[in-house]
Amino acid sequence: MDLTALTRHLNLNFRSKQTLYITLTAPILTYQLSRILSTALSSRSQASPTILASPLKALPQLPSPDSLPYPPDALPGARDVETPYGSIRVYEWGPRSGRKVLFVHGISTPCIAFAGMAKLLVEREGCRVMLFDLFGRGYSDTPDPVAFPQDVRLFTTQILLVLASSELRWMGGGERFTLVGYSLGGGIGAAFTSYFPDLVGSLVLIAPSGLIRAKHIGFVSKLLYGDLLPQWLVRYYVANRLKGRPPIPFARSSKSGNPEATVDPADVVESEVPDGKHPALAANSEAALFPDRPGISPANTVAWQMDTHPGFLPAFISSIRHAPITNQHDRWRLIRSRQSARHHMSDGKDAQALKEGKVLILLGEQDQVIVADEVEEDATRVLGAENVECVRLVGGHDVPIVHARNCVDAMMKFLA
């Protein structure tokens, strides 16, 4: 049936075939044009991704440094590393010939969370330490999470950029360093070690992410950090949680059908920041990170990031969605396979195995986010009993902040 017959059959009152052609093709052309424009805008965005500047860029405009929760020079050896992803704030100090220790912090508190441990390792153990702020935290910029999701690829790249920025050799030529990862940094550290076993000589994980059981991720969390809700609503909810305000109406309830599905990822922030809500943390709610700077605490540092760092909230949400928090069993099994291979070698040596032949995991007995019993059981099953050593310490999820000395003692005993 041709168009004339079709017109007559449908009894349409078109003035000409041309009108009919336009009527039929207009929706198709509109749809194709929208796709072309969308692709063009997307390509443009990818070619020039936005870099969200850290609060460091605004320091010259501040009336007084007293308005900062901690100054950029709070730790020795500060430097800013300019990269295609934005600037990275790095701190490195200690004897040049000492054991090299790289720290990777958690999802919310910047690298000053390791101030106590780093100070002890330098002054008491003669180590060379390096700390840095993950993208979107502290004084590091944030590459647009839409173009650069906060996943293993981004964090691995950041670690390599940080290592390469040192005037000392941290990688290559047989150099291997000790990697200490805390919370999200533990998941990042384990993933990095699985990809670069020839760079990491010793691996210490403190209350690490990576093996959190799926039952702890409730329906609300899956809904919030999925792709169903509009971004403004997700940001509104998460911002309220991080600031301690009442959440929006569909917040989690203790009356959930699954009583164990009670871990919202934002709880990690609350646990990293002692605020008295949990008995194990109450006594240290205002614990100072620096003996000579009593006003610097994790609590006001996180609040400051929420108020002044435009990349903090987008980075946090992107990390929940893409970072190595759960389902990292395959990457951990790669670490196991290299340790097992070492045990079967005649000389007991393998360039890709850890020097101690096992991973050290430090766990807080009162940690309600990274549950000690579960992590020890799961890590032993995934890594193998002969390839992991789990040590439990008094404390909650903030154990490296509040009990830095106990963490260093356990770490040095293991490394010795």
In short:
This protein is α/β, with parallel strands linked by helices. The protein is built from 15 helices and 10 strands.
Please render the helix and strand layout as text.
Blueprint: H1 3-10, H2 17-47, E1 51-52, E2 78-83, E3 86-93, E4 100-104, H3 115-123, E5 128-132, E6 142-143, H4 152-164, E7 177-182, H5 184-195, E8 200-206, H6 219-224, H7 231-242, H8 266-272, H9 279-282, H10 298-308, H11 312-322, H12 329-343, E9 359-364, H13 372-383, E10 388-393, H14 399-402, H15 404-415
Protein name: AB hydrolase-1 domain-containing protein
Region (Disordered): 248-277
Domain AB hydrolase-1: 101-240
Explain what this protein looks like in three dimensions.
The chain has 15 helices and ten strands. 41% of the residues are buried. α3 (115-123) packs across α15 and α5 (184-195) packs across α12 (329-343). Residues 1-12, 249-263 and 273-285 have low confidence and may be disordered. The protein has a domain at 51-213 and 325-415: Rossmann fold (3-Layer(aba) Sandwich), CATH 3.40.50. The chain has 416 residues and is an alpha/beta fold. β2 and β3 form a beta hairpin. The chain has an eight-stranded mixed β-sheet with strand order 2-3-5-4-7-8-9-10, with helices on both faces. Strands 1-6 form a two-stranded antiparallel ribbon.
